[in-house]
Amino acid sequence: MSLIENLNWRHAVKAFDPNKKVSEENIEKIIEAARLAPTSSGLQQFRVISISNQEVKEKLVQGALNPDSMKDCSHVLVFAAWDNYTEERIDKVFDYTTDERGLPRGRFSSYTDMLKKVYLDLPDEVNFAHTSRQTYIALGLALAQAAELKVDTCPAEGFDNKVVDEVLELDKMGLKSVSLMYIGYTDDEKDWIKPMKKVRIPRDEFVIDVK
Q: For this UniProt entry, which segments traverse the membrane (predicted)?
C-alpha cells in the first residue's frame, strides 16, 4: 500500500483490546521511524520512552484524559523533549557526529558557537518550546510507520504532564513530556469512532496555492 493509502487506513483509536499485544519487532520499527526524524540542526532534542509495563501504565492513568487507552493499549510511547539547551548537550551531539564521520572534533565549531549564541541566553521556557516542537515531526513519522504495519494508534496531548514527568522521573534526565502515542489493536466493540467515515476538510480549503 502507498503512504496515502496507509494514512487513510489509520484513525485515532478510542478503545484498545487489552488482550492483543504488538510485537517487539513492530515496536522497534515504529521507534526507529521516530529516531530517523529530521530535527533542527540535527540535534535530536528529545527522547522516546517506550512503556509496556502494566504497573507503570497504571500509575500514569491518573493523569490521562482517556485512562482506558492508557491501561489497555499494548505500549505507550512518551515523546519527551530537552528541558533546555546547554553547551554540553550541543557539544555532545556534534562530537558524536564528527566521531561517526571520522572527522576531527570541533570541525563544526563555527556552527555550534552560533547555536550557543542563539540559545544559551534565552529563557528556559522559550528553549523548551523549541525543543518540544521537534517531537511532533517524530510523532508523525511514528504514526505513519505504525499505519504501514497495520498497528493501531492514537496520538495524545490529553494528559497531565506533571504526572508523567514525576512517574518517569524525567527531570533526572533533563526532559519534559510533550505528547503520547498509544499503540495496540482496536477493540472493535468499544472503539466508537472506527465505523465512522473519516473526514478531513476539503483540499480547496486546506491548500492555499500561490502561483
A: none
Q: Are residues 52 and 28 located together in one domain of the fold? A: yes
Do residues 81 and 176 lie in contact, with contact meaning Cβ atoms separated by under 8 Å? Answer: yes
Is residue 20 within 8 Å of residue 74, measured between CB atoms? yes
Strands 152-156 and 75-82: unpaired
Give the CATH number of the domain where residue 77 resides. 3.40.109.10
Q: How far is CA 136 from CA 32, 162, 197, in A?
A: 15, 19, 25
**pLDDT one-digit tens code per residue, 154-177:** 999 999 999 999 999 999 999 999
State the pLDDT confidence band at 63, using cuts at 50, 70 and 90: confident
Residue 1 pLDDT exceeds 80:
no
Terminal CA-to-CA distance of the chain, rounded, Å?
A: 32
Please give the C-alpha separations between residue 199 and each of 9, 28, 193, 202, 204, in angstroms, as whole numbers: 12, 30, 11, 9, 14
In a domain, 94, yes or no: yes
The rounded distance, in Å, linking the Cα atoms of 116 and 151 is 40
Domain, as residue range, for 16 = 3-83+122-206
Total domains in the fold of the chain: 2
The tens digit of pLDDT for each residue in 64-95 reads 999 999 999 999 999 999 999 999 999 999 99
